[in-house]
């Protein structure tokens, strides 16, 4: 399948035109900046959103298909940045979201290194990694001086891509400064920005994430889902069919079970997919470059095939991992057809199948998430519900009739509190715009 690359045009965004939630983020970041740093002239601002993935989970790092939307929860960067003709620059960052905000400093140069994961300031690696990616683009003997304040409202560890929102906001902020200093500098397309941010997370944060989170944060567009081909990096803006008053909406529910994809089971799944790919290549030949190329029949063949009457080439565990990825790619492409045609029943069924596959075959769900999904699936007016994001906690996404949103949210909160004595914030989500510079005046 070939998607058409559709980078959005450059637009001018003004703070006064933004939603109140974005204005609040920017104002909080601006206040902390003014309270922390002396330089108050030539201040820039950039914002990038988190995301919710409608379907297509754990397919991006095997170069398959994903189908996310940008959401209103975002991260804002406010401050100053300049390109200096020196071998080394200095970056200072501070975050509103820290328990006790303090300035963190690091040098910008071509031999930058991340802080150890156990360092209390290691969150700054998400910023430093992005700075490093842009240092590599600049002419030799140039560096970056930067002072920024950061404020975000993407819930941490929720599976809504708080890390990507931070990375892409910083990258957008840096590109503003680079374009001022070098007006003709070629920074490439938005997908190139996404690739730089992915590299930053892979190399500075020890997280083997795929491209989806950074890509949608860069390229999201209002009222559209984004179908991304993670191999070609082409994407298609997909508008939900307009069925009038009967058009359903997506509801996000946060389990408040935290996860970190930089450790634990996520890297294990990446390795298991790599192992499955090698086995499939031994059975099917050069046709298989990644799991994206395999069919369910290929996976079944590798699972059953025996070598010299010995054990199956693909054991039961690796079989289940490969089965999820292969069937999830098909579900994602089918979901696009259902969304554009207004076949909400089919779209919901695909969501339900996706969750069962992640629960049983990929084993990335948890009791709390399963409870929220099953409770939503049984609720009148719901078409489908599933885990969204990397898993091991985080959020669910549910397709529900708009008239039932309030009742669904109240029901989920009541049942979840009774079962787990915990809160599960819920909100309706509509596709929002991607990363952008915001004019403060």
TrEMBL record:
GO MF assignments: ATP binding; galactokinase activity; metal ion binding
* Cellular localization per UniProt: Plastid, Chloroplast
Q: Which residues form the GHMP kinase N-terminal domain?
A: 131-219
- GHMP kinase C-terminal domain ranges (all copies): 336-417
Keyword Ligase in the entry? The reply is no
UniProt entry keywords in alphabetical sequence: ATP-binding, Carbohydrate metabolism, Cytoplasm, Kinase, Magnesium, Metal-binding, Nucleotide-binding, Transferase
Lineage: superkingdom: Eukaryota
Q: Where does the Galactokinase N-terminal domain start and stop, copy by copy? A: 33-78
List the GO biological process terms: galactose metabolic process
Cross-referenced SUPFAM superfamilies, in alphabetical order? GHMP Kinase, C-terminal domain, Ribosomal protein S5 domain 2-like
Which PROSITE patterns did the record assign?
GALACTOKINASE, GHMP_KINASES_ATP
Q: What is its main location?
A: plastid
Q: Name one GO cellular component term.
A: chloroplast
Family stated for the protein in its record:
Belongs to the GHMP kinase family. GalK subfamily.
Name of this protein: Galactokinase
What species is given as this protein's source? Chaetoceros tenuissimus
| Lineage start | Eukaryota, Sar, Stramenopiles, Ochrophyta, Bacillariophyta
């Amino acid at each position: 399948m070939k998607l058409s690359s559709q980078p959005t045009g450059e637009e001018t965004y003004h703070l006064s035109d933004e939603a109140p939630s974005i204005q609040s983020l920017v104002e909080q970041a601006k206040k902390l900046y003014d309270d922390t740093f002396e330089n108050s002239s030539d201040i820039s601002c950039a914002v990038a959103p988190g995301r919710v993935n409608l379907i297509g989970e754990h397919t991006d790092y095997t170069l398959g298909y994903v189908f996310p939307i940008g959401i209103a929860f975002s991260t804002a960067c406010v401050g100053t940045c300049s390109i200096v003709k020196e071998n080394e620059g200095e970056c200072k960052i501070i975050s509103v979201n820290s328990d006790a905000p303090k300035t963190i400093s690091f040098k910008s140069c071509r031999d930058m290194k991340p802080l150890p994961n156990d360092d209390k300031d290691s969150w700054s690696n998400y910023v430093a990694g992005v700075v490093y990616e842009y240092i590599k683009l600049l002419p030799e003997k140039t560096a970056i001086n930067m002072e920024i304040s950061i404020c975000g409202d993407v819930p941490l560890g929720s599976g809504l891509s708080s890390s990507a929102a931070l990375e892409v906001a910083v990258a957008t902020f840096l590109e503003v400064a680079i374009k001022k200093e070098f007006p003709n500098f070629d920074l490439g397309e938005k997908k190139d920005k996404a690739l730089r941010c992915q590299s930053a997370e892979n190399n500075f944060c020890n997280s083997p994430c795929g491209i989806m989170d950074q890509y949608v944060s860069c390229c999201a567009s209002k009222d559209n889902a984004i179908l991304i081909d993670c191999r070609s990096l082409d994407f298609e803006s997909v508008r939900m069919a307009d069925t009038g008053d009967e058009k359903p909406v997506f509801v996000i529910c946060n389990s408040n079970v935290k996860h970190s994809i930089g450790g634990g089971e996520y890297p294990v799944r990446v390795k298991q997919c790599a192992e499955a790919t090698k086995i499939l290549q031994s059975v099917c030949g050069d046709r298989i470059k990644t799991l994206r190329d395999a069919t369910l029949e290929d996976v079944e063949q590798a699972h059953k095939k025996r070598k010299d009457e010995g054990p199956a080439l693909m054991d039961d565990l690796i079989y289940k991992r490969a089965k999820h990825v292969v069937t999830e790619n098909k579900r994602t492409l089918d979901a696009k057809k259902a969304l554009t045609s207004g076949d909400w029943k089919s779209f919901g069924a695909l969501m339900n199948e996706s969750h069962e596959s992640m629960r049983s075959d990929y084993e990335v769900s948890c009791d709390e998430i399963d409870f929220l999904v099953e409770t939503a699936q049984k609720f009148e007016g719901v078409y489908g519900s599933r885990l969204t994001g990397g898993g091991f906690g985080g959020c669910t996404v549910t397709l529900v009739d708009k008239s039932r949103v309030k009742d669904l949210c109240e029901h989920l909160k009541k049942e979840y509190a009774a079962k787990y004595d915990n809160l599960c914030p819920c909100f309706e989500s509509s596709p929002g715009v991607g990363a952008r510079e915001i004019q403060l005046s």
